[in-house]
Amino acid sequence: MTPVPVAARPAVGARTGAVWVTGVDRRAMPVLVVAAWAALFLNVLSFSGNPTVVPIPRPVGQLITQGALPLALLLALIVNRRGVVRSSLFLILYTMLAVTSLMVSFHNEFLAGSVFRATRLLGFVAVLWLLTPWFGRRDLLLLRCHRIVLWFVVGSVVLGAAVSPGAAFAFEGRLSGALWPIPPTQVAHYAGVLLGITLLLWMCRGVTGRHALLVLAVCGAVLVATHTRTALTAVLVGLVIAGASLFLGHARVRRTYAWAALLGVALATVFASQLTTWATRGQSAQDLTQLTGRTKVWSAVFGLDRPWWDTLFGSGMSNQSFGGLPIDSNWVATYYDQGWFGIAVQVAALVTLLLLAITRAPGPSRAVALFLIVYAIVASFTETGLGSPSPYLLDLAVAAALLAPALTWRSP
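Predicted structure:
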């Protein structure tokens, strides 16, 4: 891939303030970039065994999701036909992780599946590299693409619940996708991320009050209906930290957080028993202590006796389960698949993004990036995804795009 030279004088779009990149067809750029990002998102869209309004055979669903990655790669190559890329330490780290995972996967017991997953991670990172010319744009194009896709997914879940409530709430009474089989935890993730991003943009006057109110009503209801504690906790922690970066410079942020604190105290006082019932989901104290049985699997993974090479670099990419049970922790799954090396790379990537956020000037880009980073960190304790193609990795890619320096370009 060819590095892009930095020009001394900017070539800025007259209407949108967009910065054009040499070698990219500006007329086809917006539609194809959105399409490439949507295909990338479709590739990581969960396909569970939950019932749907129209039954979708599992092979067909997997073919659709897995076939979306070659489509994303093709669209990215069309829109960035000269292979123009920008430097990104975040993507360099994940390229190292993908290459190492592929090398280790050749020694996995399940060779074909492990190599396929590692190759998929490498292809996923390659598409992100091809989209780096749109990192650091003033119009926040990749963030807008992300919000469009999130709106579409959350809207499909709401529509499915309206068409077939029985199918939508078939998973232990928790809201899941009925048009496309999305599990409740992932539904909560999409709704939580869309909610947090939109509220931060509204506080920075990036979206209208009506739009923010609509998102708050829809995504708030979806979050409650999914009964997902991880997503709710990640949203609250992410909003607190991201809002703190805007606290001094935005009066709307200070007013919003003051009212939110008062409202939170009032709700916690009046509806304490209902909130406790919602949070416990009918589980016993032992289930809550063991995180619904997750800690048993984690202990088994760390107690596994394996060679020092596997401990250092992992056993190769797996389906992130152990003994037939889901691992449900990014850090435990990474240790099992990619070893301590994988954990070190992911920590380095998160620290890199946090340092970039700290050094960037206050504003909506930094606030949204902080929210996405903190959300991923909080969710990583009971969710997987930072070491493999997933919506969490896309969230971090958006954060990296928001924190990238705004370069100026011109055609030669």
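Summary: Residues 330-359 form the longest helix (30 residues).
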